[in-house]
Design brief:
Layout (H helix, E strand, L loop, with lengths): L10 E8 L2 E9 L5 E12 L2 E10 L2 E11 L7 E9 L3 H17 L15 E10 L2 E10 L2 E10 L14 E7 L3 H15 L10 E5 L2 E10 L2 E10 L2 E8 L3 H36 L1
Antiparallel strand pairs: 1-2, 2-3, 3-4, 4-5, 5-6, 7-8, 8-9, 9-10, 11-12, 12-13, 13-14
Helix pairs in contact: 1-2
Subcellular location: Nucleus
Protein name: Purine-rich element binding protein G
GO molecular function, one term: purine-rich negative regulatory element binding
Length: 284
């Protein structure tokens, strides 16, 4: 895609190209002396839809605007557009949830199109919920006659703080065809790596592999407090538990206790194998 220069009566614009997508710096000053800095944009095409991921900066910090554009085929070529916004500090949590949905989608059987009954026209397959500040994000993987899709719905609590860089509006929704989840997640990951909030409370999940399993440890927070999410992944399956901070001391005590128990059992088994081997050698 080409860089498109945009002119503002009170702005300074500099555009450039890098990595196959648009890097741009666009400073806008409006009548209220608020400024908005447009840093980068990335486009993802999924079926008949286009998704634009724009990283912007305001006095309140960096944020991501995701716009969905659908162009219908008809006499008038109807164009529909929807969007949602989130802070860059919240973007890693969205990326982590997208990974869960991708794993689930590929583990489940592919939809059979017309085989989906009318009773399950909008069947919900998997749901997740993310909360940050006064904004809630509801993620629902659904299925209908046309296939599977992920609906991401953002709601904003009424009251002070509903305006600002998120824009006006109480609820915003985008719908992602399931076939493009990986490409969308990868585009989001690139923007997080290049423009992520260094002061974000969200950390990359630490992980390690044991045999054919991988374990992920991810610290997060919501209105109920701070927690550690532990995920066990053995393709195509994922199991997850969430441990609240207030229970972590007891978890640690039990881990130590059962580690000692497992080592004792391991030693007993090792001694039995040694005794059995010695007995067989004596018989020979």
């Amino acid at each position: 895609s080409h860089c498109v220069n945009r002119v503002s009566n009170r702005g300074i614009l500099r555009t450039g190209r890098g990595g196959g997508w648009v890097h741009r710096v666009h400073v806008v000053l409006d009548a209220s002396s608020h400024f908005r800095l447009e840093l980068a944009s990335k486009r993802v095409d999924i079926q008949k839809k286009r998704f634009y991921l724009d990283v912007k900066q305001s006095v309140r910090g960096r944020f991501l605007k995701i716009a969905e554009v659908w162009i219908g085929r008809g006499r008038h070529d109807n164009i529909r557009k929807s969007k949602l916004t989130l802070s860059m500090s919240m973007a890693p949590a969205l990326r982590y949830s997208l990974g869960d949905f991708i794993d689930y989608y590929h583990a489940a059987l592919s939809p059979t199109g017309s085989a989906v009954s009318d009773d399950h026209a909008h069947r919900v397959l998997k749901s997740e919920f993310i909360e940050r500040d006064n904004r809630k994000y509801f993620l629902d993987l659904k299925e209908n006659q046309r296939g599977r899709f992920l609906r991401i719905r953002q709601t904003v609590s009424k009251g002070h703080g509903t305006m600002g860089y998120y824009g006006q509006g109480i609820e915003q929704t985008i719908v992602l065809p399931a076939q493009g989840l990986i490409e969308f997640r990868d585009a989001l990951s690139q923007l997080i790596e290049d423009y992520g909030d260094e002061d974000s409370d969200e950390r990359e999940a630490a992980s390690f592999r044991v045999d054919n399993k991988r374990f992920y440890f991810d610290v997060g927070s919501n209105r109920y407090g701070i927690f550690l999410k532990i995920s066990e992944v053995r393709q195509p399956y994922r199991n997850t538990i969430t441990v609240p901070l207030k229970a972590w001391a007891r978890f640690g005590e039990n881990f130590i206790r059962y580690e000692e128990e497992m080592r004792r059992i391991f030693s007993c088994h090792k001694e039995k194998r040694t005794d059995a081997r010695q007995d067989s050698e004596e018989e020979v």
